[in-house]
Fold each of these.
Amino acid sequence: MSHFALAVAVFILTHFIPALPSLRGRLIARLGKSNYIALYSLVSIVTLVWVIGAALHAPVVLLWEPAGWQAWVTVIVSPVALFLIVAGLISANPLSLGLFPGEGGDKGAIVLVTRHPVFWGALLWALSHIPPNGDVRSLLLFSILALLAASGFWLGDRRARKRLGPQWPAFARETSIIPFAATLAGYNRLRIDVPMVLAFGAAGVLTWWLLAGGHGVLFGADPLAATLY
């Protein structure tokens, strides 16, 4: 468990860097923005893999017994989470995390649903994995990941407000943190674009692979088998 605690501590510390503007600014000035993003992404992936590996080898202390309905939560919610993550990453978005910052204020269709699709996807993915994993290590792991994802709403808005300056109020008005809130309020109209279609297909293929045995290969657990408990 000490190895797991160390991995979690390092993972959390690496995610404090974006929350410290002065440190982040110095790193960008020294490395360049593209190199900083690439390096930070690599560190994030490596530390996440470390955390998951440490969790898999940590002692299992059950808090509640498994039941089939718990696994169904993950099976149903995870494809939605994957769709939001992929759509958010490949869509133009000047307001939040993504591969394309949206030059000139361009926004992908997914941004009209929520301006933080990647963070919402990560949050749903983490929360959906808590019910079928009723042990201490899993509860700690997925709770920490959920809290980090939720903090992205505040951090993302803070960075966008600073970056966009006087343009921020207009962008904030026609988008929302809560999915569909801006649409229901009449501030935008939903649409479908190519990145959303690609994300839907990618999420479908990835879900099929995970349920067909990929999840077992990666993590040693079969989600569909767990639904039969």
Amino acid sequence: MTFCKEVRNECNDLWEASFDHPFVKGIEEGTLPLDVFKYYVMQDAYYLTHFAKVQAIGAVKATDLETTKRFAYHSEQTCAAEMALHESFMELLNVKETDWATFEPSPTAYSYVSHMYRSAEGDLADVLATILPCYWLYYEIGERLKEATPKHPIYQKWIATYGSEWFKELVNEQIIRMDHLAENLPEKRRQELKDRFRRSSYYEWNFWEQAWTMETWSVNVSSKAEV
């Protein structure tokens, strides 16, 4: 069994939790409140800004020119295609400059980005094991939802993007590359890469959750119990 098949199977619990999350179901059914989706889009724009930078770090970590070229291309595609998608969402959601002026990343988004940069201290395999769940999970969601017919055009566009042939090609390219990087590695090293993949899979689930709850940095301090 290839590395990616192994780690995908081992993380199936987290991925199924993402597929079943009410945020994802709300997109499928077209019932997700737009203020929740607006919160998600703004957090995702923050995340993707750093995702593109980590892809660029992958280009630097590559040991051959072709891989450098491909990671640079992926980074450019994130900046161009993904951000263009979000720009259209910003317009549909009526996101204003004042919204950005008061924006701050959620605890989950901040933590996920920190996780990516920490992983990027390693080699190219560390980088790819960390960012691959974002590619792959979104593609699987796009595939699962591509027959869905939510009435709102913003949800139709989101599904169409991640279920597209263009996105599928990018995902498959990175899966093949991950398998190549992990091939013949000692079991201990393979487990390290699996751990990075699983942590990112957890953060992917938590990204839906933080949007669903519109997570903030506030802390609810309960009153002291009477002695």
Amino acid sequence: MKFKIACLQMDIAFGDPAQNYKNASKLIAQANGQNPDIIVLPELWTTGYDLDNLKTTAEEEAQAAKVFFKDAAMEYSSHFIGGSVANKTEAGIENTLLVFDKNGEQAGTYSKLHLFKLMDEHLYLAAGKEKGLFSLDGHKFAGLICYDIRFPEWVRAHALHDVEAMFVVAEWPIQRLEHWRALLIARAIENQCFIVACNRAGSDPNNTFAGHSMVINPWGEVIAEGGEGEEILLTEIDLDEVKEARSRIPIFTDRRPELY
């Protein structure tokens, strides 16, 4: 099965949810002109890394974002990998990815497991505890958030559920762009699946972000890559390539987990 994908590599207004909802709406409408099956947004797209003010800008149980994606999915008949938002829960404020199917039904959720101490996430955010598995149109996928890609054991834990593509949403800085590219390519090769990675563009008071959203096939070939600025990255993936890669090099049947 083929999916046409639009990654919204948006610039994020620091600590300004109203402006970010407006910008996201504009980009979604533009992407709709290409009739994408799946639309992907970046990490913390409603607030950026304005961590000091999350107590006031984070959403109670991500309700505003849920309504936004439900309405957008139904209007445009597209699935949404809704980036992530600052989400007030009983456990604290979590960095939560939302997935909605094209009928406006919530298909998945994932709160970031690995908090990035270099950007003080551990001081403001509560870590998630569940995997990011979900299904769309009968196909198994997974969601990951930014720093997660540095933990191959976490990514493999999802691949072992026969996922065919993993969606990575991020705010990855420009100074580690080569890490971003190398890690994403490695995760695609070692798990023999598509990696669809949507990064943000622009800067905030403390960081400049890399852009370079990427789509990588199960052989590790980059089939689409953005630049550094705000843009919509469009491409198509064919999930039959996952079956082909896994049949030609059977790493999952050749694993020796009893010795690891």
